[in-house]
Amino acid sequence: MNDFEQGIAWAFRGIGEFFRHPRLWRFVVVPLVLVLAIYFWLFYMALAVWLPPLQSSVRNFFAGSWFEFLYRWTEWLITASFYLFLVLVTAFTSGNIFELLGGLCFSHMVRDYETNILHCKIEKLSPAREFSNLLACGVFSTATLVLYFALFIAGFFLPVAAPLATIPFIGYRYAVIYTSEAVFNSGRKLSDVPILFQGRSGLLYGFGSAAFLMFLVPVLPIFLIPGLVIGGTLMYHHRRN
After folding, report:
1. pTM to 2 decimal places
2. Which of 91, 131, 180, 221 is 20 to 30 Å from the Cα of 105, by its Cα?
């Protein structure tokens, strides 16, 4: 296999590894509960607070008019659109919210995996260093999101070139993020990832492209992100050795 294909294989191997070791599952409980709480609050606010006034406004608009017979159809259409909007927002943002909330938990998951399953010696990080690493990942992820949005807009003007460029470009940045926890545990910084994979960047492109395509499926990222973090860890140790 070439490096690109190996990168894809590491992504799938990491997902399988996560589900193979139940001891790792406890690290996703907190971010998962937080995500569920956020969307429970969102649905409650939308359906109990925001939707009723909207329905009331529609009712008042049609009341006493000659086209009052359209009221039921219009109310149904608005309500259905509201529900559909909520479902789409949940489907396409839940993965990002889960990843954002799970950052610190994934860090502990990787440390547990490296210590108890891979039996690696890892650096003991100070709270200040952990915060610095978390901040670096947050800035990098935010920049990735901005670039993703820019490429999405570019797709309206370059309908073939922009989407094709998005997969490896954004995918590469995904791979850097999912490899970063293992890199941090060896005492290095986020900016060291491209250096560590110098001459073998195809691994990052393959891994990230696989992750990018998986993320196109709504809600699926919630179940795959922990495995991709483990996959990035395995790929880093393979490259390091």
Report:
1. 0.85
2. 91
N- to C-terminal Cα distance for the chain? 18
CA–CA distances in Å: residue 225 to residues 15, 119, 166, 206: 8, 23, 19, 16
Could you identify the residue written with the tokens 């809600």? 219
Pair 229, 106: CB distance under 8 Å: yes
Residue-wise DSSP of 131-195: HHHHHHHHHHHHHHHHHHHHHHHHTTTSTTHHHHHHHHHHHHHHHHHHHHHHHHHTT--GGGHHH
pLDDT tens, position by position, 123-167: 888 888 888 888 888 888 888 888 988 988 888 888 888 888 999
For residue 240, give both structure tokens: 């390091």
